[in-house]
Amino acid sequence: MRRALAAALVLALSLAVASAAPAAHHPVKKGCRHHHHHRKRCRKKSSSGSTTGAGNGSIGTSDPPGRLLVTDREISPTQLQLQLSRPSLSAGSAIVEQYNAGSDPHNLILEKGGQVAFAYPTLDPGADQRQTVTLTRGTWTLYCSLLNHRDLGMQATLTVN
User: Fold this and answer.
1) What residues does each domain of the chain span?
2) Residues 6+ away with beta carbon under 8 Å from 55
């Protein structure tokens, strides 16, 4: 019983000392309540409540880029799929990420009006890659150009408004 009581006392003291010790992580600068990578900084809010630098249609500002995840899937040996995280995006800058969920290598081609606008390199199974691209209004075709993957269904349509 004495040993159990002594062990409990040592544990309680250890916890009290640990909770009173300063945190080991980097302190956050005063005025900023966010945890950032060392290069990122908080943006000050303007009087309208929007973050400075955020696009509001005025000259010299731009909206944050849109985001699109393109996933390569192999349904069967004769059926492939290119799955988009959303069917449409706004025109302008977009981060397009390709994820290869299949067991074969795949690439990604972004085409508009029959012309290749962006080509991603071949991606190994389980890997991902991303590029920031500028998309103009219209209908875009995304596909894998390796072997006969496009004919087997690895193609999707994206509408850019």
Assistant:
1) 66-160
2) 61, 62, 63, 64
Fold of 66-160: Immunoglobulin-like (2.60.40)
Indicate if the alpha-carbon torsion angle 125, 126, 127, 132 is positive or negative: positive
| pLDDT value, residue 10 | 47
- 126 in the Ramachandran plot: left (φ > 0), alpha (ψ -120 to 50) or beta? left
pLDDT mean values, one per 10 residues, the chain (161 residues): 50 44 40 41 38 38 85 95 97 97 96 97 97 97 97 98 96
Q: % helix / strand / coil in the chain, to the nearest 5?
A: 10, 40, 45
